[in-house]
Design a protein that fits this description.
This protein has a single domain (about 5-145), classed as Alpha-Beta Plaits. Helices cover about 40% and strands about 25% of the residues. The protein has helices at about 15-20, 25-45, 65-75, 115, 130-145; strands at about 5-15, 50-55, 55-65, 80-90, 105. The structure holds flavin mononucleotide.
Length: about 150
């Protein structure tokens, strides 16, 4: 099947705390609902990826058909559960990095691990594969540590 496979990544500021009035159980509930809905939709639509959440920020990497991803990103951009969504990278790929995961939640410490804190800098969207590959590798490392699967 010919698929125009692309990968995009963005960082955003979570609004879950204020939307949930700082109540941790509500935040957890909203987060679980977000991840569950995303997983269901993503697996139906051939999208794979990971979503990092550290209480303040989301970092998400999505892989899938280019036009589907572009439409999804437009929805994500206007989702009130976060703001200041900043595209980090968008580029074509031959293979998926997250092929086992329709949307896996990565819990990360706050502040972001030093290895990911470079994402907070005012980085322009880039097609630089080194930068993107680095981010993908770090997310995968955190996922594997978290899940103890390789
Ligand atoms: C941080 C964050 C990550 C999201 N990730 C996904 C995702 O991976 N897949 C998805 O379908 N929706 C995701 N969403 C939800 C979309 O913004 C949007 O609400 C949803 O796709 C709307 O689906 P609908 O058009 O079927 O109602 C995410 C939202 C947020 C705030």
């Amino acid at each position: 099947m010919s698929e125009n496979l692309h990968r995009i990544g963005y960082i955003s500021c979570s609004q879950l705390k204020s939307l949930c009035k700082d109540q941790q159980d509500k935040i957890n509930e909203s987060l679980s609902a977000l991840v569950l809905n995303s997983k269901t939709k993503n697996s139906k639509n051939g999208v794979t990826g990971a979503l990092l959440y550290n209480g303040d920020h989301f970092v998400q990497v999505l892989e899938g058909d280019k036009s589907y991803l572009e439409a999804l990103y437009q929805k994500i951009l206007v989702d009130s559960r976060h703001q200041d969504v900043r595209l980090l990278f968008k580029y074509p790929v031959k293979t998926r990095a997250f092929n086992a995961w329709a949307m896996e939640l990565v819990h990360a410490p706050k502040p972001l691990p030093v290895s990911l804190s470079y994402l907070l800098k005012d980085q322009k969207p880039t097609a630089s594969n080194a930068f993107a590959d680095n981010t993908v590798a770090l997310l995968k490392e955190l996922l594997v540590d978290q899940r103890k699967i390789g």
